[in-house]
Amino acid sequence: MLGNHDLRIRDESRLRGALSGAGLVDLGGRSQTVGTGERNSFGGQRTSLVLARGPHRRGAAGRRRRPLRILLAHSPDQFAWARARNFDLVLAGHTHGGQIRLPLVGAVACPSRLGVKYACGVFQEGPSILHVSRGVSSLLPLRINCLPELTRLVLTRANRPET
Fold it and tell me: N or C: which terminus of the chain carries fewer CB neighbours within 10 A?
């Protein structure tokens, strides 16, 4: 999935080909079910995307569990959309953490319709979780109290019954 700055590249198909050639999966505007011993649904969002529910799995004591549903959304502005469609986890960026953060105040501005609400960090609303990374770069190389970040997330199993 490409970000808004990546879209300035003249030969987008060449960039996507290079990323695919490096072993990455481009999910821009589509979904893919990935099997890692269990089936999980991943979706990438450029515009609207609806993921079909995958096969059910059996959890503890034989209870049915639905597949883990993860949305890769460029912006945290898509969190409400993802919650309405029962995504478990939304991974986003775009905000660069606000780039300028003041002690006790936090981010002072953010490129989001929601302002600084989801500038960076982890947020949970209902059963959905949003992780917003500060990322590593931006068009403006100015960051104050907002270090660049590469994030490594480790997902662990929770035995939630089918809802």
Answer: C
